[in-house]
Write a structure and sequence with these properties.
The structure is a single chain. This protein has one domain. An eight-stranded antiparallel sheet has the order 4-3-2-1-5-6-7-8, covered by helices on one side. The longest helix is centred in the C-terminal third of the chain and has 19 residues. By secondary structure, it is α+β, with helices and mostly antiparallel strands. Helix 2 packs antiparallel against helix 3. It is built from three helices and eight strands, in the order ααββββαββββ.
Length: about 190
Amino acid sequence: MKTIKFTIAILMLTLISCGGGISKQPANAEGFATIEKELKDKFGEIAYYTDVKVVYIKGYGNSIDVTVTEAPESLKMGQWNQPQNSWKQTSEITIELPEGTKAADFMFQLNDKISLKKLGELIEKASEQLTTEKDIENPMLNIAYIDFPDNGDISKAEYYISLEPENGGTKFSFRYTLNGELIKMDY
């Protein structure tokens, strides 16, 4: 009986450690939808963000950085980092606003208008474009984030993606509108 319990415990630890969590999610729509679900599980379905960033480090995986609050009217936000599936709050921020404005007007939520799944779809699209136009096989994510303007104008919000060849080299950046239209590609 002890052998069976020990074997089950080892099997469960192996499954947990091999699952990879969000640090091992691929840079595609499905992987980024999983990251978004983790954010909603951690910070709440209706959390407000000023920053959501996914940085990929070869051999390490994804590192997720967010600036988030559940209560915008409190004017307090937390900066959080999630390297290797363990959330850590790195700082607390108190924001200042122009007279007569609401904090929520300068923040965004992950929903139908802005989503990490859409960002993942655009990473796939940018990767295909690099493969087709620049003959780069297996472009790797460097960084992807939601660029939300300081003035809160959601119509100016963008998805930003930086990709590079698998073995390093020139970085290619892509900027897209929230509906997925390419604004600019740089390298």
